[in-house]
Amino acid sequence: MTKLAIRDLSALDHAKAGAQMFRLLVKSATLLLRREAQLVLVCAALLLWLGVGMAGAGALITFPNVNENAQPSLLPGYLAKPDGSGPFPAVVILHGCGGFFSSYASVADDLRWEGYVVLAVDSLGPRGIPDACVDGLIAQAIDAFAALAYLSKQSFVDPSRIAVLGYSMGGSSALMDVEPDFIGKLFSGSFAAAIAYYPWCKDRSAIVSSPTMILIGADDDWTPAAYCREMVARPRDGGATLALTIYPGAHHAFDNPKLALGMRRFGHWLQYSEPAATDAWAKVLAFLAAHLSRPITDNKPGAR
Description:
The protein is of the alpha/beta class. It has helices at residues 3-7, 11-32, 35-50, 52-55, 102-113, 139-152, 169-177, 225-233, 274-292; strands at residues 59-64, 74-80, 88-94, 117-121, 157-167, 193-197, 212-217, 242-247, 263-265, 268-270.
């Protein structure tokens, strides 16, 4: 468009041209954003998703990845902390293949009231992945160690009492995190315990480096309970305890009350089961209390 033509534009045309140029500038700026700046947008989206009310209980944070070469360099998460200076036991939460939802922040808040510091990690958002329900995301198991390293450096966390809790894909990642001679050997530090809701158990080692509990529905057609039954039945020479609970009639995502009516996703049935969800949560609390409790010697006079 020539300068003369621009001068002949009406006021309305000027407004339209300005709006169009603004949109082009925004688009160009978005394409030029660095990963760290993109992370700000991810956190903003998480904040909107969580809602103002939930944001008051915890806080959105970013924390370093496992090393300077890992991408993204920063990971976002939702951190919930009990009142007081601690040091408290802690839990790292890993989401399912559909990404980070407000339900994971709700779990973090519930555990906070039980006396745990909780960091729920978003593994898909900073990587620009809408879902990982077909290919999975092994990087999530590595993200858990980034969260472990971050929590271990906080004065209000006891680094010897940190567990990992995962759902579906996150449950599979949690099992990877406590499998000896696998991902964990690449990093310093280890989880004190692991809990996996309806994970993929096929061809997985029955030997775990930390006490582990699996919770799954008998009618789960996405991550079949039969594979977990086979897993725990394999011979185990050494290793920590491995417990399995299979809930009759329960499907995938049986703990999510938003699925009371059930729904089909990627060809698999998801549905809430109140009896299974209630029992599983009680088991989660008992398991964490048993394996993250402060040693008896810490209760002696003069102990921290």
